[in-house]
Amino acid sequence: MYSHASESLIKQAREIQESELLKFYSRLAKLFQVKELSHETLDSLQRLHLILSANKFTRKLPSDLQQRLLLLLSSPAEQLQVLSSAVLRETLPSSGEELNSIQENISQLNTHTASLLISQAGSKAELSSLCARLVHGLEGRPSEGTARSLMFTLPALKSIVTLSPECLTEEHVTILSQRIIDWLRYASIVQGGGASSGGFFTGPRSRQPLPTAELDGSVSGDFFTVLCVGQGFTEDQWMNVYSFSMLRRWLLTYHSGSSSTVDADDRSEVDGSVVSMVSATSSSSRLLPPKERLREKAFQYCQRLIEQCDRKAQKKADTELQKACMAEAVCILDCVCIEEPSLVFRAFPSIKALFGRLSSDLSFARVLLPVAQFYLNHGELAAVDCESVWKLVFGRFPAELFSDPFLSHELLRFLRLNLENLQLRVPEFIRFFPNLLKFLAWDSTAAVEDFVDLLPSLVTEGTAVEMLHTLLDLPCLSATLVLQLRSMSLPISEPSSRGLMSLDAFRNPAFRGLFLFLLRVESGSGHTIDRLSTLHDLLAEAANWPRVVRCAQAVPLLLHIYFNTVVTVADEKLLAHLVLVMLERSSLLINIPSFHKDVHRVFSSHLLKLCKLRPSLVVDQSHELLEFAGTTANVYSKEEVYTHVVWVLGEYLSASSDSRCSVTLITSCFETLEAVLFEITSSAPPPGTLCPAPKVITTLMSALAKLASRSHDLIPRVSLFFSKLRTVARSGLVPWCTDEDDLIAIVTRGEELWSLLKAPGVAQSVLTPPPHIITPRWHRDTNLALPLQLRVLTRLTHSQ
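Above: the chain sequence. Below: its structure as tokens.
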């Protein structure tokens, strides 16, 4: 983790003796007495920080050294501010008098002092006291010395509000809200820093302050905002910027929950309030209570910002600033409108115009997500058509911007935070699940946590089958997305530098339909691809691509979530269809060996759960299950799935599980499994394959014994096989089992089953016990003696 030199320094810092440390303290104190601090002082401070941070025990510095470090917090050199605050944070909290002296002298406040004060507040009482001091410093008009420190006061208060909002009293909230209103709406509209128009006569008298400008260079014609520019800025303009940066947090923390929610049925009352609000003038807004007044000023500020974003910026950096301000302004408007629904009708015209202007340019995608949030929260109240918004957000964004990590994170976060609201108001978003899964296919490591939460909401009775196929094809989608980007970056006339056959196939019109199906935007265009094996052959070289491998590793987890969800929404007919899909797709997977094993393991466990939940599935799908179990090749290529298919056939193919189960069906199943067992135990495995696993053979033997116990005519046939098995094992010529211990276990299991079948009535009770035997509740049955015995034993062992 650390280099050898770094580890050596850390070790020295940890092993320093107390006597050496005291000498170092005194030497450092002497260095502080010099008027101009040297490089040696800086090195010593860095060493002191290393000593304090490397030790797990918090130390207390000598009082004179502590006092010197506190004075350095107000040093003009920022490097000294950083080092002194870092050292003080590693020590025990300073005394109350020392901290109070800093709090009282507000002119000393800077970023590092503020963070130190917050970190060393030992209780909520101390934090509340610090809040009171900071708010008190904001109350009056700033003097020459304290004006600059105010710029650090507001960020400090924002940190406290985030950590412990209850530290501010109602009085503090009112005071600070009023100050934020003043900074937002009434900041100076002239440039700071002594800007002048230039020219020959540029003396003190002729130096006239210039007005602030818009980003397109025109003179600002309205109040100052964060998007106004100039050669310099006044202190209240800086406070305007800081106030805007904390406005949303402030509104969410202290100005939410005071207004009653208005729904669509109360729209007539809202309309009446809209008329009154629109007619309200700036002077009348001063008569509003502080909370309502702050909302009104925040509304006006954000409306002005959106208007300013219509202007073409002269610098590229300003264009990015416009995007950030647009997103924040729409978020603040959303907060304000949630608390005051009457403002929705005033806000929607500008929001609709903003969406119409930006929707064609995908570079504004991260701005359009807050717009979509606004439509989701208020579209129903305003009775506007939101379909174009959802087609853009769930259609074009994932299809064209799946490789943008920031958009991926924000869009998936949008889905997670609004899942219930989307299910209620935009249920059609579910049909875009093939498109949304592109985020997972492209970067499964980053997106898998989001889809753990989202996947259950995407699984419905209508999407279940297609969703299962899509999850299994997710590594193919990952490879296709890689090919799509490479195809766009490499001209068709230019051969791929790596000679990718899959890229040529992607561009080949003959295979275009396969890839277009994987890249589909909406569901409902088919459950799977007819030529899956062809697709897997085309993507064979992609099996080793890191992105595809990571995607394949995420699929088993999602399959578990899928099956746990689908049993809650599917009827028996759908579950029967899913059993067929599992059998079919167990051999139609991209050629990644570990992926095959993981998927087979998931299929096996959930096949058991489905059949246990609905035993009638075994009879309903007996033909397909027997066809799968009768294919000897499945023993070697799909060991896990095959074993569990055989087990469910032996377990649930009985009249007790389903009255439709006939002797003919039991006999047919017996003959199918008997043929497979005879084939794999009478010859060596095919070339290139391993011997069948002992678990497969013992499961086949148990299934035959169970079936024979239900149809006694079959007992002689299975008994004959067990006797032959013992004879073959004794002869020593067993090509289908090379491990002696495994062979002994198989023969032992055969002898046990043979012994049971000699008493058919006992065999059926043992091999297929009734439900009340499998899940006994004897300890609760008052008609039996067992509860009485348990009570007696309890009293004896817990006697007082």
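The radius of gyration is 37 Å.
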